[in-house]
Amino acid sequence: ELVYINGEIIPMADARIGVEDRGYQFADGVYEVFRLYNGRPFTFKEHLDRLERSAAGIKLALPTPRTELEAGLLKLVDRSGVREGMIYLQATRGVAPRNHVFPESPSGTVVAYCRPLPPIPNPGEGEGAKLMAVPDERWKRCWIKSIALLANVLAKNEAVSQGYDEAVFVENGVVTECSASNVFAIINGKIVTHPVGSKVLPGITREVLFQCAAELKIEVDERTLMESEAVRAQELFITSTTREISWVARWNEKYIGQGRCGPLTAKLHRAIQQRVRQETNG
Ligand code: PLP
User: Does the keyword Membrane belong to this entry (predicted)?
Assistant: First the structure.
C-alpha cells in the first residue's frame, strides 16, 4: 500500500508523521475524499477547488502548489492500481512545538492514499438507508471540510449502535445534513434541501445532483427543511462521494414513502451515473 506524503510516494508502512503534527494535536487541518471510477478521479477539479476553499477557511497555505499536487495524486492513483475506489487526502499545518498560536512558517503535512470501494447498488436497488435524528452539536463552519469530526463521529456511532445507518442532524426542528452526507426531500415534485454554509457542507455530489436536476427539469428549492416535512416527504435520499445516492427507507421509527426507492431518486441516480460515465470512460 502506497502513500503520498509531502510530494513523495512511498510504502505506507514507511511513512512518518511527527508527534507534534498540529493535525494530531489540534485537528488543525482539512481533508478531501475523491471518488475513483475506472482509475480516474471524478469531479477532480471541484474537489481540489473545495480543498483550496477549506484550506483558506482555516488560513492554511497548502504546502504544495496545485498543479504539483494534482500531478502527484494522479501518479499515486496510477501506482496504487486502484480503479474503483477513493483517494483520501488530508492537509495539516504540520509539525511545530505545541502552541495554539500558528507557527510563523508552518511546515505543512499533506498525506494521501487510495483505497478500493465495493460497487454501489444500481439506481433504485439495494436496501434503503435508515436515518436517526440527532441534535446538531457541530461548530458553525460546516462548509469547511475540517478533519475535526468528533461530533460527526459520535453522532454516527450513536445511530449505528441503535441499528441505523446514518445520523441526520436536526436543530430546533430544522434538518441540515447527515454525519457524512447531504440530505434531500422530494416535496410536491421538487427537491428540497437546506442551503450550504454554517451548518451544511457544500457537497460535490450535491452540486452534480443539481446539474442533473436542471437537465431533467426537476426544480430545486434550497430552503429550511423541517423534520415534520421530511418524515412526510414523498421521497428522501442522501448523497456523498462514496455512496452517490442512497434512498432513505426510515427516519427514526417512521417508514418513508412506499418503503422502496422513489422514482425521482432512481432517475436522479441514473443521471449521476451517466455523468460519471461521461467523465471517466474511454
Ligand atoms: N456532509 C458531510 C458532513 C460530509 O462529511 C460529506 C462527505 O462525504 C458530505 C456532506 C457529502 O459531500 P460530498 O458529496 O462532497 O462527498
Answer: no
Give residues with Cβ within 8 angstroms of 176, minimum separation 6.
136, 142, 169, 170, 194, 199, 200
Q: Which atom from ligand 1 is nearest to the alpha carbon of 182? A: 10
How many angstroms does the Cα of residue 203 sit away from the middle of ligand 1? Answer: 5
Tell me how far the alpha carbon of residue 120 lies from the centroid of ligand 1, in angstroms. 16
Report the distance separating Cα 57 and Cα 144, nearest Å.
Answer: 6
Backbone region of residue 97 per phi and psi (left: phi > 0; alpha: psi in -120 to 50; beta: other values): beta
What is this structure's pTM?
Answer: 0.97
Statement: residue 259 has pLDDT above 90: no
Torsion angle of the four alpha carbons 174, 177, 179, 185, in this order, in degrees rounded to the nearest 10: 100
Question: Using an 8 Å Cβ cutoff, are 123 and 245 in contact?
Answer: yes
Q: Quick one: average pLDDT of 119-145?
A: 97
Q: What is the Å distance from ligand 1's center to 157 Cα?
A: 17
The closest residue, in CA terms, to atom 7 on ligand 1 is 180
Q: Which three cell numbers stand for residue 246?
A: 442512497
Q: Is 145 a catalytic residue?
A: yes
> What is the rounded distance in angstroms from the CA atom of residue 268 to the CA atom of residue 46?
20
CA dihedral 156, 157, 158, 162 (to 10 degrees): 110
225: cell is 427543511
Q: What is the pLDDT of residue 186?
A: 98
Q: Walk me through the domains of the chain, giving residue ranges and CATH numbers.
A: 2-116 (3.30.470.10), 129-280 (3.20.10.10)
- Please state, in angstroms and as integers, the Cα–Cα distance from residue 16 to each residue in 3, 11, 110, 115, 218, following that order: 11, 11, 12, 19, 49
Q: Which residues contact 130 (CB under 8 A, 6 or more apart)?
A: 163, 164, 165, 166, 248, 249, 250
Q: Whose CA is nearest to atom 9 of ligand 1?
A: 181
**All three cell numbers of 275:** 455523468
